Each structure stands twice: as structure tokens, then as C-alpha cells.
Amino acid sequence: MFDNLSYKLDRAFKTLKGTGKITEINVATTVKEIRRALIDADVNYKVAKEVTDKIKEEALGRDVLIAVSPGQLLVKITQEELTQLMGGSKEEISIKGDPAVILISGLQGSGKTTFSGKLGAYLKKQGRQVLLVGCDVYRPAAVEQLKTLGSQIGIEVYAEPGNQNALQIAQNAIEFAKKSGKKTVIIDTAGRLAVDEAMMNEISSLKETLNPSETLFVVDSMTGQDAVNTAKTFDERLDFDGVVLTKLDGDSRGGAAISIRHVVNKPIKFISTGEKMENLDLFYPDRMAQRILGMGDVVSLVEKAQQSFDEDEAKRLNAKIRKNQFDFDDFLSQLEQIKKMGNIKDLLGMIPGMGKAIKGLDIDDESFIPIEAIIRSMTPQERGNPSLIDGSRRKRIAKGSGRSVQEVNNLMKQFSDMRKMMKQMNKMGGAQKALGAMS
Ligand code: GDP
């Protein structure tokens, strides 16, 4: 996410390195570089100019403390200004009414249907009874897609195949929700490839008639300036409440995230960073600014870990580690937990300093595939008792998993090192302490 922009901004700050103080002359060069980096990242020119003018003004007005270099101070100021530009603080969606209606709008392919499912799963996790409604009457596949998502996350989907009247479907769905005790209704609407009158009429009439508690506009962040323009057009007609930025896991240059709030003056409420149902995050302007500047985002990382962390599973593992019984099944279960946290490269990018270090590195969930394949080729007995795995068994496992014997040997070595470390930890009482802290 934003690798390129982070890199260019970092280079801009470096132009100040070595200078002892901030002057009109040296800050001008750096600020010009920052502006160029933002424009290259598809930030609207006016927005880029405004923000860099502010950065300059702030920088010249502040004393450089002995503890920080002018470069560090400028990074801090830039972070503050970007945070303000993206809205300052987090904004939640409003869920009011019985049922509360949430209307999802956006162009075709922006990720509306996927987001509707994610939002449903997110609200269900908070204990809400959710109904998903397929109102895309032009693309039957969209309703099918919603149904598939619904069954995956255990949420009922209301649809009326064959009915071409989106408003009628939505109204029937709301009646159905009342009868079946669903308190939150998420309505996925039809998009088009580009803004057109019929789509705008349909979505505005849905909004006027249904009076939703929240109307969200979903937009693909990879479309850069177009995303900002589309947001503007939708907002003029729809006066939506918030923006959902999708596909931030892709090769996004960051421009949309930075400009949308400022140009449209509506808060970004969610960001989506992948196709999986759990790839959804609330939008925190300060954390996003830190991420853009390559400063990492430890707070989000910790929260993600907490969300994905299964406490009972952790206790079970801890007990096994304590008894020196950690086996390959436990190893697999740990891998699953890590994968649940989302895209590995994005996760690593949240660690300060890692963003730059892993730029260009090819790591993703796929990196686990060979390890998983090897473990899954072991028999249950072998997984539970790895000391059984001798030379001939290693050959068989390699063959079964389609990996080389060398790879199997490497994994066995890693596993045995891991067990040794755990044993050591046990001797020092580390596991007991950790277990005590958890219970
Ligand atoms: P809709 O036409 O607006 O309903 O869009 P869809 O929900 O069908 O999404 C279009 C495509 O984008 C699908 O292939 C989704 O899997 C994919 N998609 C949606 N959100 C994300 C995201 O955050 N990241 C990535 N990489 N793909 C996404």
C-alpha cells in the first residue's frame, strides 16, 4: 500500500538531512519534493499545493528542538497535515431505525457487493441481526454473488429474481426484515461502468423513499483521480454520508485516499484491503497518514492481532508447549491464525521501518503454501509425533506434497529449533508466566 509515495516522501525529507535548522530556503526545496511526490501519487494538484503550503508555514513557525532533526520535525508536521486533510478523526456509520437501513452505492466493479458482505459480517460480529438485500436488478450474477457471500458468513440474503423494480424489492425486503426480526438491512444496489442518468435516478429514489440511516459510496482507490471525480458526481446527486475505499491492497498510489475527503468533504469510513471477508478496516486518518509516511501502524497491527486471536486456542497451545507436546497440527493451526489476520505484506508494512525494507519483496499468503503442503502430506501419527519422521518418510512426504526433500528437511529443522526454543522457555518458566497472564 502506497509503497511508492512513502519512498518518495522519505527521499524528500532526506533533502533536509544534515542541515541544522529549518530556513525559508532549505524547507522550500523539501516542500517542493513533497508536493511532487503527492502529485505523482495522483493527489489533486490543488490539494497537494494547499497541504504543502501549510506544511511550509508550520515548519517555519516552529522551533527545531535539540532532540529532533529538521527532517524529523518535517515528517511530524507532514503527518499532522495529512491527518487533518483526511478528516482528522475516525467517523462511525450511523445505525438507527427499526430496521436500520444502510444503502450501498457505487460504480460496477468498485467492490460494492463484496463490501456489503464484509459490512454484514462486521455488524454480525457486533451482535446485530443483519439482512442482506440484492437490489442489482441488471446483473443477476451480483445477486448470486451476494447469496454465496451470505452463506459463507451465515447471513440471510433477500432477493427477488426476475423483479426489475429495485425500489419494490427494497421495500419488500424491509417488510421481511420487520417480520423476521432483522434489525439491520444492508441494500446492495446496481452499478454501471460509468455514471449514467438511469443509475443516478434509481439510487436517488431508493435514498429518498427508504430514508436510510446511512448511505455509503464505495469506490475503487486504484482509479485515482477518477475516484475523486466519481465521488463528487455521486455526492452531488445523492448527498451520501460516507466513503468506502476499496482495493487498497492493490497498486494504489494513494491519491484517492488523500484527496477524497478534502474535495468531497465527506468522511472515509471504511477501507477494504482484499477480497476476503475479514479484509475490512475502519478508517483512521492518523494511522493512514503514518502508513503513507512509512512510519508503520503498530496500533492497527495490534488490533488486528487481537481480533484474529482465538483465546481458547492460545490457551490450548500454551498448555501443549508447557508439556513439550507442540506438534505439526499445532503448527498448522498457528499458520491459520496468522493467515486470518490478512495480507502478510500489508501486515509487515504496518511495522515501523518495515515498509521500506520489504518494498519490492515478493511475500504473501502464498509463501505458506509449501509449508502447509508438506505438513498436510504427513500422516496424523507423524504430525502428532514428529520424531517418527525418518529419512524414508521424508522422501514420501516430499513426493506427496510436490516439494523437494531439501524443503522437507528445512521445515523439520525449523520445527525442531522451534521446539528447542520452547523447551528453553519452559525451563525459564516463560510459558507458565504467559499462561498465568492470560487466565
Ligand atoms: P461490484 O460490482 O461493485 O458489486 O463489485 P464486486 O464486489 O463484485 O467486486 C469486483 C471485484 O473486485 C471482485 O472480483 C472482488 O473480489 C474484487 N474486490 C472487491 N474488494 C476488493 C479489495 O478490497 N481488494 C481486492 N484486491 N479486490 C477486491
From TrEMBL:
Name of the top EC class for this enzyme: hydrolase
One GO MF term attached to the UniProt entry: GTP binding
UniProt cross-references to InterPro entries, sorted A to Z: AAA+_ATPase, P-loop_NTPase, Signal_recog_part_SRP54_M_sf, Signal_recog_particl_SRP54_hlx, Signal_recog_particle_SRP54_M, SRP, SRP54, SRP54_GTPase_dom
Catalytic function, reaction form: GTP + H2O = GDP + phosphate + H(+)
GO cellular component, one term: signal recognition particle
PROSITE patterns assigned to the protein according to its UniProt record, in alphabetical order: SRP54 (PS00300)
Subcellular location: Cytoplasm
EC code: 3.6.5.4
Segments forming domain SRP54-type proteins GTP-binding: 267-280
RNA-binding listed as a keyword: yes
Binding site for GTP: 106-113, 188-192, 246-249
Stretches the record annotates as Disordered: 382-402
Keyword RNA-binding: yes
Keywords, alphabetical: Cytoplasm, GTP-binding, Hydrolase, Nucleotide-binding, Ribonucleoprotein, RNA-binding, Signal recognition particle
Example of a GO biological process term: SRP-dependent cotranslational protein targeting to membrane
Complex formation: Part of the signal recognition particle protein translocation system, which is composed of SRP and FtsY.
Family: Belongs to the GTP-binding SRP family. SRP54 subfamily.
Domain description: Composed of three domains: the N-terminal N domain, which is responsible for interactions with the ribosome, the central G domain, which binds GTP, and the C-terminal M domain, which binds the RNA and the signal sequence of the RNC.
The protein's name in its UniProt record: Signal recognition particle protein
Natural source organism: Cyclobacterium xiamenense
Taxonomic classification: Bacteria, Pseudomonadati, Bacteroidota, Cytophagia, Cytophagales
Gene label: ffh
